[in-house]
Amino acid sequence: MEYNWIDTESVPCIREGERIILFGGGQGTVELLHYLMEQKMHPQILGVADNDSTMWGKLLHGLPVVAPHSVPSMRWDRIIITTISGREHVARQLQAMGYEEGTHFCRVGAYPQTSIMNLLILLDMQARHEFLHQGDEVLHIGPGGFLCLETALHCLGFRPHSMDAYSFAVHYPDVTRRMAQYRSVLDFILRQPAVAAVGEDVVRARFAELFSEDGEGRVFVDTSKLPYTMPARYSAIPLPDASRHAVCSFAVLEHVRNPEAAVRETRRILKPGGHAVHRILTRDHRSFSVVEGYHPFSYLNESEEGWEAVNRDKFYQNRLLPEQWKALFEANGFEVLEFRPLEIYRLSPDQVEALHPDFKTPDGKLPPDFTGAVSCDMLARKVR
Q1: How many domains would you assign to the chain?
Q2: Do 377 and 342 contact (CB within 8 A), yes or no?
Q3: In the chain, what is the straight-line distance between the N-terminal and C-terminal CA atoms, in Å?
Q4: Considering the domain boundaries, does residue 62 fall inside one?
Q5: Which of 128, 137, 180, 265 shows the smallest number of beta carbons within 10 Å?
C-alpha cells in the first residue's frame, strides 16, 4: 500500500498490546491501521479522538470515535496524532492537558504528495486555453508539505512563488529527505507532452540548478528560484498589486473564512488579463472519511452557529457550493472561461429532510438553483 497521509519514518516502535489512542478521524488513521498490520505490530487501539463533536459515538473501522476531553480518563500508553491539517493545534491541545511530545504523544500525519496531479490540472487547462507563457510569474497558494508543482513550473520555464498559512511539515530549504520525491517529479515532467516545446535537456538543466549540496551530504533548494512564504493568509497576500500573471490553488479555497476577501486578493495581485486556476473541493470533508453517516452536503444540516461550533477546533471549511464560487468570481471582475463540476450528488428524500431550513425553500424542498454539483475546477480571467 502507498502511504500518502502518514510519514512511516515517524511511526514509533510499538510494543505488543501497547494501549494506543489515535487522534484524527481521517485517512491518516486508516493508513496507520493498515501500516501497523503490515509491520505486524499489534497494539491495543482504544479508540480515535477527534475534535469534531458530530463524530463522537460513531465508528471508524470498528473503533469508537471519542471526545478529546475523555482522553485523560482512558488508560492509555501513547497517543499518536494522525491528522495533518490540525496537527499543530492538536499538539498544543494535548500539551495543555499536561502531556509532553515524545513522552506521551507523537505525530505521524503527513501531507500527501499530490501536487504533481495539480500540475496535470494546470497543463490540461493550458492545453485548452494557452493562458501561460514562458517567463510568467505564477503564485501557487497552499502547496502543503512539498514544493512539487513549483519544481515542475520552474523546469517548464515559468517563475513560481508559493505561500501557505501553515508549514504542513514542509522541508525547506533543506530538502535532503525529499530528494527522492523531487527526482520522481523530474521523471514525471519528462513524460509530459509540454516538454517537447521546452526540450528535455533544458528541463534537466533547470532541475539541476534548483539544488546544491553543502559538503556534508545535505541538499538545499535555491530559494531565489523557488521562493516560499509562510505563514501567509489568502485574505492578505503579501505581494504587490498587479504583480503576477497567474494564481493557482488546489483544495484551498474551501478552507478560507472570508471567500470574497480571497477572491478580491486574487484579483488585486493579478496583472490585467491575468488568470486564476482553482480546484475547489466543496464537499463536506467528513464525507472523505470512513466514519459512518456523512455525504457531500452533510454540512448543510447545520445552522450557521452550529457549523461554527463544528469547526471550532478543526481545520475550517466554508460551505460555498461550486455555482456560488463561480458567481463570486464573476461579481469581482473575472470572466469565467471554464467551470467544471467534478461530481453530481443526488440527495435522497431523507437527506433533504435533514437539511437545515436555511438551505431549503419554505415548503421544505431544495431551492430551484441547487444542482447537486460537488467540487469544481475553474479558470477565470481578470477583466477589470
Answers
A1: 1
A2: yes
A3: 48
A4: yes
A5: 180
Residues in CB range of 306: below 8 A, 6 or more apart: 356
Output the tens digit of pLDDT for each of the chain's 384 residues: 778 889 898 999 999 999 999 999 988 999 999 999 999 999 999 999 999 999 999 999 999 999 999 999 999 999 999 998 778 889 999 999 999 999 999 999 876 655 678 999 999 999 999 999 999 999 999 998 889 999 999 999 999 999 999 888 788 999 998 898 899 899 999 999 999 999 999 999 999 999 999 989 999 999 999 999 999 999 999 999 999 999 999 999 999 999 999 999 999 999 999 999 999 999 999 998 778 889 999 999 999 999 999 998 788 999 999 999 999 999 999 999 999 999 999 999 999 999 999 999 999 999 999 999 999 999 999 998
- The verdict on residue 261 lying in a domain is no
Q: Residue 22 sits in which domain range?
A: 8-107
In CATH, what number is assigned to the domain containing residue 21? 3.40.50.720
Look up residue 75 and give its amino acid: R
Cell digits for 44? 491495543
pTM of the entire predicted model:
0.87
Query: Is position 50 within any domain?
Result: yes
